[in-house]
Design a protein that fits this description.
Shape: rod-shaped
Distance between the termini: 115 Å
Largest sheet: none
Radius of gyration: 41 Å
Helix content: over 70%
Number of helices: 4
Structural class: mainly alpha
Number of strands: 0
Order of helices and strands: HHHH
Length: 135
């Protein structure tokens, strides 16, 4: 076991956890550290079991905290994906509305030009009727 080889380390798993407090708590509750300022003394079976139980409780607390943190991250990602989906729907709707408005503007422009042409023709006809000799 790695604890036997490296008495200053709790184990390789504790070193990769993000919480330094968890690592320190496990290190301080290591069976060879309890009861001695320098950390090295023999332990009875009862105190070793109690120390292991404390270490297990700390590990379970850390695991629960990591699971809750992961759950919160997952909820945040789900909310973000819902917002992205809503924004994509809005963008599609706005693009469709813009296309319809552009088509209507082109139709109104064509109608405006046709009306202007007809008015010019009517004005020319009226001038010809009013002043037949000016040509």
């Amino acid at each position: 076991m790695i604890d036997d080889c490296y008495p200053r380390l709790v184990g390789f798993q504790a070193n990769v956890l993000p919480s330094r407090q968890f690592f320190v708590a496990l290190w301080l509750t290591h069976p060879v550290r309890i009861g001695s300022p320098w950390g090295y003394q023999a332990m009875s079976d009862t105190s070793a079991i109690e120390a292991a139980t404390r270490r297990l409780a700390l590990a379970l607390d850390a695991l629960e905290g990591a699971a809750e943190q992961r759950h919160e991250v997952d909820l945040g990602e789900d909310n973000l994906m819902a917002q992205v989906h809503a924004l994509d729907d809005d963008r599609s709707r706005l693009a469709s509305d813009l296309d319809a408005a552009m088509a209507r503007a082109r139709a109104l422009e064509r109608t405006n030009r046709e009306i202007a042409r007809r008015l010019d023709t009517a004005i020319g006809t009226i001038r010809t009727v009013l002043n037949p000799h000016e040509r």
